[in-house]
Amino acid sequence: MQLGLGAQLHFHASVPASDVARFISDADIAVLPILPDVMSHQYAMPNKLFEALQAGLPILGANLEEMSEFISTHDLGICYDPFSAQSFSEGLEAILRSSEKGASRRARMLAVSQRYSWEAQGDKLLSVYKSLDLGTHPIRVAMVVPNPCDPDYRVVKQAQTLATAGYQVKVYCTLPAGSNLPVSETINGVEYERIPFSPSAMITPRWLR
Asked: DSSP readout, the chain?
């Protein structure tokens, strides 16, 4: 607001994950401004990257190791130095000047998105598990994640894919303070156990019981 940009900025309430691609499809560019201030960010492949891909939007993404390789490999847009305003503005202008516009660009990006749809990734996940020599008894899989496992998280989709294929899956996740989520529940064949979050909770044997 101090810069006088109030009329150009719109902070929208959250929308269901399944609606994000449709919701943003009227935009011209998707910007992924992630800072490498956490080591894991260098290897992050955030959901917003694939949502932009599904929406057919050219991507201006921070130059982080995994994300920049993905963007450049599939020619999805331009990567910029996340610590340089000039790099950001030059990348933005380059995308706006691009000769590839409209339907042709969206069609190409949607074709790429099909290779990374959850259906395609689920098939790859199952092929990895099936390639392991784990015997014929019911195979138990434990997943440990440092979040409350919102139904839209990718780990939930992974767990449900394995459960549908006959694996016994249990997900250990956090229970945020003040949350009304149950400590234990079973959803679509997947068991969830939520543990009250604290730094020490991440390393207690209970996570691996």
From this structure: -TTS-GGG---PPP--GGGHHHHHTT-S-EEE---TTSGGGGG---HHHHHHHHHT--EEEE--HHHHHHHHHTT-EEEE-TT-HHHHHHHHHHHHH-S--HHHHHHHHHHHHHHTSHHHHHHHHHHHHHHS---SSPPEEEEE-SS---TTSHHHHHHHHHHHTT-EEEEEEEE-TT----SEEEETTEEEEEEE--GGGGGSGGGG-
- Identify the CATH number of the domain defined by range 10-115: 3.40.50.2000
Does residue 36 contact residue 82 with C-beta atoms inside 8 Å?
yes
Closest to 95 in 3D by CA, of 129, 57, 39: 57
Q: What is the pLDDT of residues 2-13, one digit of tens each?
A: 667 677 788 888
Judge contact between 116 and 109, C-beta under 8 A.
no
The share of the chain scoring above pLDDT 70, in percent, equals: 88
pLDDT in tens, 129-160: 888 877 777 788 888 887 777 665 778 888 99
Q: How far apart are CA 191 and CA 163, in angstroms?
A: 10
CATH 3.40.50.2000 residue window(s) in the chain: 10-115
- The predicted pLDDT at position 63 comes to 93
pTM, to two decimals = 0.74
Contact present, 167 and 141 (Cβ < 8 Å): yes
